[in-house]
Amino acid sequence: MQDGPALAVEDLWQVFGADAASVFKSVHAERASASATAEALKAKGLIPAVRGVSFDVAPGELFVVMGLSGSGKSTLIRSISRLVEPTSGRILLEGEDILAANTRRMTELRRSTIGMVFQHFGLFPHMTVIDNVAFPLKVGGMSRAERHAKARPILEMVGLTGRDDAYPRELSGGQRQRVGIARSLAGDCSVWFLDEPFSALDPLIRRQLQDEFLDIRKRLNTTIVFITHDIAEALKLADRIAIMRDGEIVQIGTPAEIVLKPVDDYVRDFARDVARGRHAKVGSVMRADTGGIGPDDPGLTPEMTLEDALASCMTLYEPVPVRDASGTLLGVVHPGDLAAALQADSA
After folding, report:
1. Number of helices (H) and strands (E), helices first, in the chain?
2. Is 0.90 surpassed by the pTM of this model?
3. Are residues 110 and 251 in the same domain?
4. Which 8-state DSSP code applies to residue 233?
5. Are residues 227 and 122 in the same domain?
């Protein structure tokens, strides 16, 4: 595992309009905050789509960015992958400043390090499934036999065994999206950018692909930045979630923190209809102090949901232990804390 974040984004701005870079430079130097800079840019007829965004993504982390339509989330992922050139800021990909990379270097990174999947599949209609998946390897100069040999295990991983010779027109929407995912993996990417990859699919297929995606993620341990507008999808997939509004990040937290501790009404509205007990974990209300444990041990673990934990100890009145998989005592949780967390913000 590498030292430091796999991806670090520092004070990133994406401003659209005539002479945006020079106008931004002069305006930003005179303003104390991102909001003040954004207002000044809008007054000059420019569009500040991403406003002073900063975050880190740890190696192997699944980092979800979500927000309403127009919040800047898709522009953000296009900026950090340099599909559009950021106006200002710094982007470190595995320690390398990619804003300093020339076109040739960015091509190398997209072949060897960065994988990208988008809502629209972008498959070549005249190519078979296996040739679509192996296309990045063809561009890299690999022989047909070699690239097909590498592509077949990837097709198996995404559930497309036996469809090697099919054409995109012969596939369902979910199968076409699987091809897109497989193609992005063909280059052995270590950082994966996905922009609403499942939003065009019907709910049943979407849930199935989410489950398969989590299984793929476990096998690859790839660093992932995933864009969505769906809070249920974010809570299901994410290690951490960043909520965007008007081009800015308003909160970054674990799924439990987003659900139980929203920073404002905007974040609270996202989680309003979420069943808290199914997403928040015992670890979010666990106390480090292990004193005063009662005689009962219902077998709580930090990863247990609040619903399951409360069902296990709802008849108890004293703090109960929380242990890891080996049985080591990590802390305690009071049944009253579980009940209070489930009722938080329910009014």
Report:
1. 14, 12
2. no
3. yes
4. H
5. yes
Residue 326: domain span: 277-343
Query: Residue 149 pLDDT more than 80?
Result: yes
pLDDT tier at 256 (50, 70, 90 boundaries)? Answer: confident
Burial class (CB in 10 A: 0-12, 13-18, 19+), 177: buried
For 45, phi then psi, to 5°, come to 85, 10
CA distance 275 to 8: 32
d(C-alpha 181, C-alpha 284), whole Å: 33
Q: Say yes or no: 98 and 111 in one domain.
A: yes
| pLDDT of amino acid 317 | 72
3-state secondary structure at position 188: coil
* Structural domains counted in the chain: 2
Residue 291 clears pLDDT 90, i.e. is over it:
no
- What are the start-end ranges of the E strands in the chain? 7-16, 47-57, 62-67, 88-93, 96-97, 114-118, 191-195, 223-228, 240-245, 248-253, 320-323, 329-333
